[in-house]
Amino acid sequence: MVEQKNVNRAAGMSLADGLKKALEKEIASGTLEPGKRLDEKEIAARFDVSRTPVREAFRLLAADGLVDLNGRQGVMVRALSVNTLLEMFQVMAELEGLCARLAARRISPEKLQQLQQIHQQMVDQGPALSPAAFYDMNLTFHEAIYSIARNEFLAEETRALRNRVGVYRRRVTFHPGRVMKTLEEHSEIIQSIAHNDGDAAHAAMRKHLTLLGDDLVDFIAGFS
């Protein structure tokens, strides 16, 4: 029996938009892996919808670069080459760096305390979590910085690119020692934001998101 799911929709969101958001989350998490063929009939049954919004959701996902529409071959989750991924990580680092820069300029004492609390929770729980669970907690940290930056357009563009590289970004979390490195890098980012140092915050976040040195070598070696 196919497990049915309801499509959660925000106010004013169409059924296709809600379905697109649900599939986008599955792609970013790796539930729907790169190269996987998406079956229109199966997805319609799983979400208890007709096939018309499924087709529209596929078109929306293709417009965001998350799937490829291959005619008779069907719809496939887009797989990215190493070179494309590295270029996207570079852009991701700059977008997140700008979020951190704006956060350093616009942080309030209350928001700083909230950011520090998120970080402390990661320090306390992170080493005991699975890499997947830690990655989800890590997203909360980054979302907090988007919010503090107070630029919704920038936040939307950053999330859109994050969703495109999400499954690959998760892979980095599984590398030995990555959790501790992440906590150290987050600490540096918070210190820069707390001191209202936009340049330092940008640089710290860019370093955090850019694959350099051994991390880059390990990433390419594990890429398949």
TrEMBL record:
GO molecular-function terms, A-Z: DNA binding; DNA-binding transcription factor activity
Entry keyword Transferase: no
PROSITE patterns listed in its UniProt record: HTH_GNTR
Entry keywords, A to Z: DNA-binding, Transcription, Transcription regulation
InterPro entries: GntR_C, TF_FadR/GntR_C, Tscrpt_reg_HTH_GntR, WH-like_DNA-bd_sf, WH_DNA-bd_sf
Superkingdom field: Bacteria
Domain HTH gntR-type stretches: 13-80
PANTHER family hit by this protein: TRANSCRIPTIONAL REGULATOR, GNTR FAMILY, TRANSCRIPTIONAL REGULATORY PROTEIN
Protein name: GntR family transcriptional regulator
Source organism per UniProt: Affinibrenneria salicis
